[in-house]
Amino acid sequence: MAIVYVLAHFDDEYCALPLIRQRVAQGLDQRFLYVADYADPQLARTRHAETRALLRQVGVDPANAVHVGAGSGVMDGSVHRGLATAFAALNAAVESIGPVERFACTAWEGGHMDHDMCAMMTTLLAQARGGVPIDQISLYNGKGLSGPFFHGGWPLPENGPVTRPRLTAADWAQWMADVRFFPSQTKTWLGLWPAMFWTYAARGGFGYQQLDPARIARRPHAGSLFYERMFRTPYDEVRAAADAFRAQARA
What we know:
The structure is a single chain. With about 250 residues, the chain is α/β, with parallel strands linked by helices. It is about 40% helix and about 15% strand. The chain has a single domain, classed as Rossmann fold (3-Layer(aba) Sandwich). α4 runs parallel beside α8. The radius of gyration is 17 Å and the shape is globular.
C-alpha cells in the first residue's frame, strides 16, 4: 500500500522532508502528485527535475513524482478555477497507484489558494476510499499578521494536535542544506526558508497534523488570509469554487 502526497507545486515536498525521510527509513512506498500546470513548459520541466533530484537524494524513486497537472490548463495560482479537471487527473493517478494507506497534503491554512484546494481535493479522495487518514503539512499562513508578513511552517491551532517527529542535529542540518535543490526558486526560498526554520526553533520543531474533512467547510482562520493580501484572491471566490465542486462531487 502507498502513501500518496497531493501537492500543488514542485518544491512543496520540501516542507514535509522529515516525514518523507522517516517513511523512507521505514521502507514505505511514497508517491507524489503535483496538480498545478505552468504557462512556461520549460519552467515546469526544470522544477519537476529539481523535485526529482531532491527525492532521489532522499531515497525515493524519482519516477514517483508525477506531474498530473501537465498540460491540464489548471494553472499555478488558479487551481480553484479548474477543480473538476484537477480532481479527475488526481483520481486517475491514485487509481493507477492502487491501494492507499495514507494521504498527505498541503495544509488547509489560508496561505496559498492552490495549497488549500489540494487539501480539499484530498479529503474527497480519502472519503471515496473509505476514510483513509490524511496528514497535512503547513507551508505558510498569515494568521494574526498583516501585509506581506507570514508564519513559515506554523501549524494552525485550528487544525488540531501536532505530531512532532524527533530530529537530530544532523537531520536539521541536512534538511536546511537540501534547499539547494531548488535554484529556480531562489527568490521564494530567500523569504520562506528563514521563516520556516525560525518557527521550528521558536515553536518546538517540525510538526504535522491530521486533516479532519470537516475543517474544509470552515474558514482556515479568523481575519485576513495571506493569499487575500498577497495574491489578491478573495476567500469568498475560493470558497464558492470549493463548495460548488464539493456539491458536484457528492452528486
